[in-house]
Amino acid sequence: MNARTLAWMLAWGIPSASLILGIVLTVMAQVDVWAEFGAHTYEASRIVVWPAGVALLATGVLGLTAVSLATALTVRPDRSR
């Protein structure tokens, strides 16, 4: 694998993963966390994750837009036609 292929994979992969994770966290809205609190007692707490989901969603959309524009501007058209 050469450096150009690796850079292309990372440029598309990181924003795509950010977008997917943002969608998942936004849909979940909150996560329940269980912690042991004594011998047979557990304490539950909720963590709100939708703000992080919205931030990752926006980051993914902006990243994919930037990569799409960069790809469109750097790919040369086929001159054989």
What are the main properties of this structure?
81 residues; alpha+beta; two-stranded antiparallel sheet; 2 helices; 2 strands; 63% helix; elongated; transmembrane; membrane; transmembrane helix
Q: What does this 3D model show about the protein?
A:
The chain is built from two helices and two strands. The mean pLDDT is 89. A two-stranded antiparallel ribbon has the order 1-2. The chain has one domain (17-73). The protein is elongated, with a radius of gyration of 20 Å. Helix 1 packs antiparallel against helix 2 (50-74). By secondary structure, the protein is α+β, with helices and mostly antiparallel strands.
Q: Indicate the overall shape.
A: elongated
The computed structural class is alpha+beta
How much of the polypeptide forms β-strand, as a percent range? 15-25%
Q: Unreliable stretches, pLDDT < 50, 5 or more residues?
A: none
**Strands of the biggest beta sheet: in what spatial order?**
1-2
Overall mean pLDDT score?
89
Helix content range = 55-70%
